[in-house]
Write a structure and sequence with these properties.
2 domains; single chain; six-stranded mixed beta sheet; 20 strands; Alpha-Beta Plaits; 35% helix; alpha/beta; Aminopeptidase
Length: 454
Amino acid sequence: MEDVFAYIDAHRPRFIERLQWLCRQPSIAAQNVGIQDTARMVAQLMEEIGVRPELYATDGAPVVFGTVGNGSPTLLIYNHYDVQPPEPLELWESPPFAAEIRDDKLYARGAADNKGNLVARLCAVEAWLRTRGGLPLSVKFVVEGEEEVSSAHLHQFVRRHRELITADGCIWEAGGKDIQENPGLYMGAKGILYVELEARGANRDVHSSQATIVPNPAWRLVWALSTLKDRHENILIEGFYDEVVEPTAEEMEHLRRIAAQRDDDLRRRDLGLDQFLLGLSGLQLVKRNLYQPTCTICGVSSGYTGQGSKTVLPSRAIAKLDFRLVPNQQPDDIFQKLRTHLAQHGFADIEVRLLGAEHPARTPVDSVLARVVQQTVREIYGRDPIVSPLMAATGPMHELTAQFGVPTVGTGAGYAHSNAHAPNENIRLDDFVQHIKHIALIFERFAQAGNGDG
């Protein structure tokens, strides 16, 4: 692999410029900003490198599908080109789509989530093609544009083109190093249910002096929210935990290794916390993080929140919530249980809108691909990876791979302070180049293992 790695090192400046080029293009799925243009840019990049691209329309963002190589085995690579909204803009030290480089980091919305990983993987393909003339296996790229809005239309692509995504394994979109610089690998994902709750009062905002006789929807919403969870972190929706299952014995072994590798105090101090929820640490902290579902208030808005005072009684109040779901929980079931819960507690007037849903996913933790990625991590990073059966976050893993039994491993170029979904999102340039080399090595080793040479 010396020639491939030498090519990567020699072309490092150009690869970084390529990432800047893509990061300077806004692609905000939640606001439908720049999505079509970015899809075309991804296809253009694939074509320049030597990957055969095709755009597949959905009722939302197009899916960019790319193929390269014709050998066995077949490796699927999943990424997304959409990003989160950059707000609050005033907290950015440079414009979110300027892709400015400071202190050997590239700052941009999407740099870590997920354009850095996408560009790195395409650069790995280029390095192979330019040095070896081809790949030792077949690679398929699935790059969607709605991951940040729960992959709302990816199912259309999957159901219409199931034959395109057959594969022997899949490299998932994300991963990275923790606060101790340990590389993390993920073989599964939590699901999600994302909803919006709205309470309404008068047909317009009114003077707050009328609060004695006019209902306040902000209070109404607060009272409704207070029925969902208690102070001991128990979710109170009837039947919410019915389908939750304990980790298997094999999964518990992985959790014990994670607990042994991680420094809880370092993580806690990095977050500025006195303690984690419920005072947990060690194995119980890891287990709860990965195998317990959540109910999170992501945002609340009502009335006046600007500078100074304004005595107003709002006409409406809105809250956005996400529920992270664990294996066996189904988002449609939890949605119905939420609506039933609100009605039974006297809040049938609260409107509940479904904004996104994805199923949880598990894939094998001992697959050929999993073993290959673990070994290549040791070679590239010089450390043992932290292998997690699930990630606490969510993606369309069930839709794309898990339901078809395709082993899936998440790995990537992020790090503990990448600030994904937050102001000043960034990727360290050395991590970006390291990920290019890691993917290039995975190509070789997975091909060898798939052909009986590993």
